[in-house]
Q: What sequence folds into this?
């Protein structure tokens, strides 16, 4: 069987369409992270439930983008740089879909948290959410614009997120030790902070894919203090 | 610029070579999970440290497999079924690399756990590790053999893993409430159980990719009780 003929005229249009869809998906993922932490801060069970059941648009885009990537490659036999951009899209698509899942994990934890009295005023967790959202936005912009400096910025932001995660852990541990009734809700807040850290890890993965795509250089296993690690 | 000429004679050999490398990587990932939990059970700081610093072979394979996938597509312009197999390899490669990272997360938590007295005899966590290892092995075998039944088995195992995770959470919460000195080590055990759950999620992702690859049917967003969720 011969390969299907190259359909070059539409290729760059289709590739732009693919990137536009990834941006839409990134916007949806970012919004779900924002809404999940807003549900926590405002103690709003309705908002939590809306996030929990609201992952269908992202899931549909996930399937759609995956199929577009396969079709784009099969029909156009793209050259190295374009092929790397499409392979990057496959991976970014997976990362964004998992960010959508993590928003569900967060609001399920929020639903549990709301059955308790508040442990403390929430400062660092909303800060973590803001950083994670910005990382997602920057990583996607870096992909679309092939912007290396912005991708490097995402890697730097991940360190800030990891530091906040450690701070949240130690502070909540202190609460748990001082007042046993706070053990369960404080534990739930720690788990939420871990979900936000993982969202940052997904943004970091996207930024690393961008660097690989643009430079054909693999930075993924050469950074000191790799962001994935951390008990 | 024209596409590089098709080099069909080596294609299926190269594809088999790619699959063989994924199996090696899967074996390394599985071994790191096993070793990380063995370090916990045997309270062995040397073993924990060996896992922590031992992710180089997986990282090298990760880069190597990624590049092979791009090259295989660029040089051979594969047809739909083979293209889906290579795109699946790109994703599986990412999942296995993250399993390697999670083994680091586990042993960093183990190093922290070993600074405390044991909270309790460990039964469910080694059981979770055994299930996660089997899921990884089965998911990879399902990929190589295009075995749908085995892929479905992995999805079923993920439910068992989630149930154990919830059981671990509730049991350790009881310990924390009863004895405040156990708060920190019990919390660390909960985080380890979450890392193992995530390893199961990666195996589940691989199994879903296998089902998509074999049937060109997307099961990823149609399962009741999706394994990714859960506070």
A:
């Amino acid at each position: 069987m011969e390969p299907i003929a190259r359909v070059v005229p539409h290729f760059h249009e289709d590739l732009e369409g693919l990137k536009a869809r990834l941006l839409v998906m990134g916007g949806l993922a970012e919004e779900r992270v924002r809404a999940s932490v807003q549900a926590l801060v405002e103690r709003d069970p309705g908002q939590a439930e809306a996030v929990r059941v609201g992952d269908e648009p992202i899931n549909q885009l996930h399937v759609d983008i995956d199929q577009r990537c396969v079709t784009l490659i099969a029909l156009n036999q793209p050259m190295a740089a374009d092929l790397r951009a499409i392979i990057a899209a496959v991976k970014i698509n997976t990362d964004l879909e998992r960010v959508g899942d993590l928003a569900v994990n967060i609001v399920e934890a929020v639903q549990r948290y709301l059955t308790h009295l508040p442990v403390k005023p929430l400062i660092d967790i909303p800060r973590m959410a803001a950083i994670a959202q910005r990382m997602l936005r920057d990583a996607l912009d870096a992909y679309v614009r092939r912007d290396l400096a912005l991708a490097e910025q995402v890697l730097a932001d991940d360190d800030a997120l990891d530091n906040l995660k450690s701070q949240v852990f130690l502070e909540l541990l202190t609460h748990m030790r001082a007042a046993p009734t706070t053990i369960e809700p404080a534990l739930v807040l720690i788990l939420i902070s871990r979900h936000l850290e993982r969202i940052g890890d997904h943004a970091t993965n996207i930024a690393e894919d961008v660097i690989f795509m643009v430079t054909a250089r693999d930075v993924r296993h050469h950074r000191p203090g790799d962001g994935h690690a951390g008990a």
In short: Residues 1-5, 223-231 of chain A have pLDDT under 50 and may be disordered. The helical segments of chain A are 8-41, 45-52, 56-76, 80-113, 124-145, 148-178, 183-215. Chain A has seven helices and no strands. Chain A has one domain: 8-215.
